[in-house]
């Protein structure tokens, strides 16, 4: 789950795009960023470095409330 703010959480556990399979890591190779598209907030996954074929895609571990991608 990604908490956007105090009122909005995006939960893709039951349905959603392939990004729902991104794992958490203390040494991530990707980061999450919130973007506004129209009146909706979306989360995009951005590689922090080149990700090798077959390598697990991971983002940072625990997030503070309201903090997506370390912002």
Structure, described:
The chain has 71 residues and is mainly β. It has a single domain (2-60), classed as SET domain (Beta-clip-like). 0% of the residues lie in helices and 37% in strands. The strands form 3 sheets. A two-stranded antiparallel sheet has the order 1-2. It has a two-stranded parallel ribbon with strand order 3-6. A two-stranded antiparallel ribbon has the order 4-5. The chain is globular and about 35 Å long. The two termini are 16 Å apart.
**Top CATH class:** Mainly Beta
Total DSSP helices: 0
The fold-level CATH name is Beta-clip-like
DSSP summary, beta strand count: 6
User: Could you give me the name of the CATH homologous superfamily?
Assistant: SET domain
Rg from C-alpha positions? 12 Å
Query: What is the CA–CA distance across the termini?
Result: 16 Å
Strand composition percent: 35-45%
CATH-defined architecture: Beta Complex
The dominant shape is globular
**Helix residue percentage:** under 10%
Structural class: mainly beta
The order of strands across the largest sheet is 1-2
């Amino acid at each position: 789950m990604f908490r956007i703010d105090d009122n909005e959480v995006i939960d893709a556990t039951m349905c959603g795009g392939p990004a729902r399979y991104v794992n958490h890591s203390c040494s991530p190779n990707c980061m999450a960023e919130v973007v506004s598209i129209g009146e909706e907030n979306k989360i995009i996954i951005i590689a922090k470095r080149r990700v090798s074929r077959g390598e697990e895609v991971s983002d940072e571990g625990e997030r503070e409330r309201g903090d997506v991608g370390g912002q």
